[in-house]
Design goal:
alpha/beta, 7-stranded parallel beta sheet, 7 strands
């Protein structure tokens, strides 16, 4: 039913970042100028093709082989009533992922992407049955985080272990031929942790970042804002300063794993397609810790969660889609995947003016 996932032997970041092939990107840009269309008429699709060329080192990048890794963990702050659902839903949704019934399960099948679920800290037992349409890796660091409102969410050792599991997941996917990594998450109350992290790592207030999460009432949002403010004040008093300090104090196990996943992918020179609010918070941690990670990130969409747009802006990312989503799981990234595939296919397969016998001046 499930199998353990060995942690990577990497330290937090001990590898030089792979350089972007700017000469290849320029050659791809030159190819775009020769395709049978008015220059710039495919808009951002042209930019996407050039972006991938520079990162793959191929003037005409191959079709994307995507890996979707969902990191699942529970949050002690759920006891504060910040979510519309109880913690038991985390384990129930992991089973739903594995049984093929969740949105991301459907979208992974539709896009022929591999789907792995990595349990880094699910608190409750899994209900049966599990049919295992994907792979479930059970590597729990602990049974969820502590309540970040009153104490550090994780110890340093727990945070580092979760990070390393995420890094190992990226390496596992890359070693199996994947050239695009998508991270997803599942963890009741994780929008509270993500909001606290985004506030800590940007200049935004809790009122600007905290949203409705799983669909709480507006009155409950005020309580959630207070929980985030209390957590930030507590962590500040505890001496939090670095991105890893903040991750340990107010983050989550799945968020730490995602940050490790993104860092390892960037170190290996493999592009990353971000999903929503939670994954963007994790990316913000990774980039604040190692700025070069930003060069390997694409934003799939902007979610309905209030602070997501601000978090993307902090990363200088422009989302491809705005569909009013707030599901998480990696669903927004999976929805954007056909756009990336189309951009690269057009770049590879369209005829040049010379090949088609069309006068360049005609367009």
């Amino acid at each position: 039913m499930s199998q353990p996932l060995k942690s990577s032997n990497l330290t937090y970041w001990n590898k030089a970042m792979k350089a972007i092939a700017n000469d290849i990107a320029l050659s791809a840009q030159a190819r775009q100028s020769q395709l049978t269309k008015p220059l710039g008429s495919l808009g951002r699709l042209e930019d996407i093709a050039i972006w991938f060329a520079g990162r793959t080192g191929q003037i005409t990048p191959k079709r994307l082989q995507a890996a979707i890794c969902i990191f699942a963990a529970d949050h002690g702050v759920a006891v504060e009533g910040v979510s519309a659902f109880p913690s038991e839903v985390t384990a129930q949704m992991v089973v739903n992922f594995m049984n093929g019934g969740a949105a991301i399960s459907v979208l992974a099948r539709e896009n022929q992407a591999t789907l792995n679920v990595i349990d880094v800290g699910v608190k409750n037992d899994y209900p049966n049955p599990i049919n295992s349409q994907g792979k479930l890796f059970r590597s729990p660091v602990c049974a969820g985080t502590a309540n970040l409102r009153v104490t550090a969410a994780m110890s340093q050792a727990q945070c580092q272990k979760a990070w390393q599991i995420g890094a190992g997941s990226a390496i596992h996917a890359i070693e199996n031929g994947k050239n695009l990594l998508i991270g997803g998450e599942m963890g009741i109350a994780n929008t509270t942790a993500a909001a606290a992290l985004i506030c800590a790592l940007t200049e935004h207030t809790a009122d600007e970042i905290v949203g409705l999460g799983t669909g709480i009432e507006l009155s409950a949002r005020q309580h959630k804002i207070q929980v985030v403010n209390d957590a930030l004040a507590r962590a500040t008093a505890a001496g939090a300063q670095t991105p890893l300090d903040w991750l340990r104090e107010v983050g989550g196990l799945e968020i730490a794993a995602l940050a490790g996943y993104y860092t390892a992918a960037a170190e290996a020179g493999v592009p990353i397609l971000l999903d929503g609010f939670i994954t963007t918070a994790a990316a913000l941690v990774a980039v604040k810790a190692k700025p070069e990670v930003a060069d390997w990130l694409l934003a799939s969409h902007v979610s309905q969660e209030q602070g997501h747009r601000a978090a993307l802006a902090a990363l200088n990312l422009t989302p491809l889609l705005d569909l009013g989503l707030r599901l998480g799981e990696g669903s927004g990234a999976a929805l954007a995947l056909p756009i990336l595939q189309s951009a690269l296919t057009l770049h590879r397969e369209m005829a040049t003016f010379a090949e088609a016998g069309v006068a360049a001046g005609a367009m």
